[in-house]
Amino acid sequence: MSIGSISYTLNNGLTIPKIGLGIYKTPPNVAAGIVYSALVTGYRHVDSAEYYENEEDACEGISKWIALDPANNKREDIFYTTKVWDDYHGYEATKKAIEGSLKKAEKIGYIDLILLHSPSSDYEKRHGSWMAFQEFVASGKVKSIGVSNYGIKHLEELLAYPDLKIPPAINQIEVHPWLMRSELCAYCKSKGIMVEAYSPLAKARKFGDPALVALAEKHGKGQGQILIAWSLAKGYIVLPKTVTESRLLPNLDVFEIKLTEEDLALLEKPNEYFTTGWDPTTYPLDSEK
After folding, report:
1. In Å, how far are 6, 73, 194 from 9, measured between CA atoms?
2. Which regions in the chain score pLDDT beneath 50?
3. Do 163 and 131 form a contact (C-beta atoms < 8 A)?
4. Which residues are annotated as a binding site?
5. How many Å separate Cα 199 from the centre of its chain?
6. Can you tell me the distance from the alpha carbon of 57 to that of 243, in angstroms, rounded to the nearest whole number?
7. pLDDT score, position 1
8. Active-site residue, selected from the candidate residues 43, 51, 52, 88
């Protein structure tokens, strides 16, 4: 068993590897190679998006890995995620977007997880998108569905849909010790929604933080490895991104790091709000506009 296949069980009974390779802003001509190298290294989880413009390349990397050793490298051992961008919210637009993503994934057959990339539209469009999501699960072409960048109010809205059949399995959000989102993460847990952490290394902008440096020295690991271990300690799926092959294994070699309660208390900054990019979790509902 690959170390990268160590997994959580989602609310639909399917499993997802605890660590995935994020490929945001990974150029198409680089994505296939880094995905292939990641799978050879031991990763079993790849996170793409329509907006990243590298879905087909990610699937090419997966296909190449399967072809390397078809007897042992199985499609069902890989967890592939993509996302529907904000421009394609709404029932018909989302159906068309998912069909496009499935076409790019032809070489691997199906999509394990598809997310609504953010809540940035309106009630009617978000609702229509979710209805389309549910239909694709029923078709078997998509195994799991979820959201990204949803705040509590957006999740409450979704869970109250009168025709909800499938609740979200995942909410993918930026989260790290300087953006803990404790209330949101607790809400997700209370509803059986897994938190998936993107930008878990805070894009290295907090490297050099005295507490982080101290914990890296204490555990004999890199600062990035400590931050990945923090996400795992909190029970989150974690998506470290790299285009550097030499960082692939270190980002996976974190499961033996056991952060103590004292370690967590030293590292965590619950009162900070340090985003490294956008924050659609604050996007207003229709009633707030």
Report:
1. 10, 21, 9
2. none
3. yes
4. 117
5. 10
6. 14
7. 58
8. 52
State how far the alpha carbon of 166 is from the alpha carbons of 95, 145, 161, 162, in Å.
17, 8, 10, 12
Residue 132 is which amino acid? A
Contacts of 223 (CB under 8 A, 6+ apart): 204, 207, 208, 212, 213, 216
DSSP state, 283? P
Kind of pairing, strands 237-239 and 79-84? unpaired
Annotated binding residues for substrate: 117
What is the DSSP code (8-state) at residue 153?
Answer: H
Give one word for 161, left, alpha or beta, with left for phi > 0 and alpha for psi -120 to 50: beta
**Domains in the chain, CATH or no CATH each:** 7-288 (3.20.20.100)
Provide the H-helix boundaries in the chain.
28-41, 55-68, 91-104, 123-139, 152-159, 182-190, 210-219, 223-233, 245-252, 261-267
Q: Is 123 a catalytic residue?
A: no
| Residue 83 CB-half CA count within 13 A | 27
DSSP state of 180: -
pLDDT digits (tens, 9 = 90+) for 230-264: 999 999 999 999 999 999 999 999 999 999 999 99
pLDDT value for 289 = 86
Separation between Cα atoms, residue 278 and residue 259, nearest integer Å: 29
Q: What is the dihedral sign for C-alpha 150, 279, 174, 62?
A: positive
Determine if residue 21 is left, alpha or beta; phi over 0 gives left, psi from -120 to 50 gives alpha, anything else beta. beta
**What is the distance, to the nearest Å, from the Cα of residue 142 to the centroid of all Cα atoms in its chain?**
16
